[in-house]
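Re: your question about tRNA-dihydrouridine(20) synthase [NAD(P)+]-like

S., sorry for the slow reply, the queue was backed up all week. Below is exactly what I fed in.
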Amino acid sequence: MTAVGDGAPGPGQGGDNGPVGSCSSGGSLRPRNGTGGAADGPHEVKPVKATSDRLNYSGKTILAPMVRVGTLPMRLLALEFGADIVYSEELIDWKLLRSFRRVNDVLGTIDFVDETDGTIVFRTCARERNNVVLQIGTSDPERALKVGKIVENDVAGIDINMGCPKEFSVKGGMGVALMADLEKAKSVLHTLASGVSCPVTCKVRVLPDVEATVEVCKALAETGIAAIGVHGRTRDERPQHGNRNHYIRAVAEALSIPVIANGGSKEILCFEDIEKFRTDTGCSSVMVARAAEWNVSIFRKEGLLPLDDVIKKYLTLSVDYDNNGSNSKYCVQNMLRELQETPRGKVFLEAQTLEQICAVWDLADYCRKRQLEFKAAGLLGRREICPQILRQESADNGTPTKKIKLQETNDGIITMKIAYIRSLYPTDNDLPKTRLLGWVRTQRIGMPSYKTIQEGKLFQSVLTVNGVQYTSSMWEKNKRWAEQGAALVCLCSLGQVDSATLKADGSIL
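Result:
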C-alpha cells in the first residue's frame, strides 16, 4: 500500500465531524423499505455476476492503493481519466470481518457496513466492477480467506499488502512484516489464491539486496498469484530516496507473471513520464500513487487538466456517492498542497462539511440538492444511523441479534434531530454545554445533568434541566459529542439557539 508513503490507516481514520455513523467511505445505509431486489435483506441479494474473463494485469496503468485516497470517488475519477485498474485503500481484515454486505438502492452501490457503528468500510459500484482491486491488510491465512469469500463477487481482484512499513502494520504482523516471514507470506497468498474465484496479487517493497529481492518475489510468484507489485524502495526508505528501478527490472526479468512497477511518482509529471517509468523498469504495467494523488488526470493521454477542473469533478462524485466530508477534504488538501496557503485555500481549510467544501468551488447548491434528494429517497445516513437498525441489519445477515442495552423509546423526552458538528464551536465558551451552563446560572435553576448510554461504538445522551429531559435522536461517536448534542436540543427548545441557524450550518438537515 502507498499513500503519502505506503502508510497504514491510523485509528479513527475516515471519521466525519459528526457520529461515526457518518460512514468512513460515505454515509448511507440502505432503507428497509427501499426499492429493488434487496428489500428483504442484503443477504438475499445475489452478488453481481463476475465477468467470464479474469482481470489481466499485463500492459496496465494502475491507481495505487493509497490510505484515505483510494475511496470510491477517486477510483471512479481515475477510471474516467484513463486508468485501467484501480486499487482501494488498504482495509484491515478484522474490520471487513465485522462488516456485512448491503445493497444501497439509493446510491446504486454495494456497501460493506461495520455492524458496530454503521461506518462504510468499503463502497463499490457497477461502474468499477471489472476494474477494482481490494487491498487487504492481514497476517493470517484463514482471516484472509474469510475476507476473500465475503468480497470475491463484488471486486475484480484482491491484493495483499506486503509493503507498508508503518508501525501499525508491522506490529500486527502485516505489511513489510510479512516479507520477513516468507513462509507465512506464502501461506497467506496460497490459501487465498486457491480459495477465491477472483485473481489474487500482492504488493511488496524491495529488499536492500537485489538478488534477495528477486528470490523472495520468485517464491511469492509460485503461490498462484496473478501478478506482483514492486515498490522500488526498502522498508526504511521514504519518498526523498531514489526509487531502485533496476531492482524492479531484475524482478520483471526473473518472473513469468506480470510485475507492476511502483514508486516512480517523483519522476512522473505527465502521462509520458508514466510510459518512461514503464520502460525504465522493464515492466508492462505501472502503478501510480503520489502523482495521481496530486492530480488524478495524470492518467489522461491528452495531458493534465487544470486542478480546479479535477477538484470539481472529484467533488461532484463525492456528492453523488455520499462520500464522507472529512475524507473528501483530505483528498482535496492533497491536490491543493501549497495552494492551501492562498486566500481560496484558507477558505477551504475552514470548511468542514461536504457542502461547505463544495461551496468553495460553487457546488454548494448541487450538494444540498442531492442530499435532499437522497433523504427523500430514503437514504439512511449520518442522521439516521442508530443501534436498532444495525441490530436488525446484523440479524438479517445471520449475526445473532445483540441484547438490547437501552430504552427503545424516548417517551416524555423532548427530542430533536440535531447533529453536533465540532468545527462550528471554535472555543470552549462557544460549546453548547458551556452556553447552557451559563443560562441555567442566570435563571438560578439546578445544574444540568447528563445520562449517556452506549451501544457498540455509538452514544446517545439524555439531559435533564429543571425537571425536563432533552435528547438528540442523533447517535454520536463519543460520549462528549452526545452530551453536546443533547445540550443543543435543550438550547433550541428554550429559544436560546435559533433552529434556522442550525439548518444553515448543517446541524439540522
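Residues 75 and 86 are 6 Å apart (CA to CA). The chain has three domains: 60-303, 306-382, 407-505.

Happy to talk it through on Thursday.
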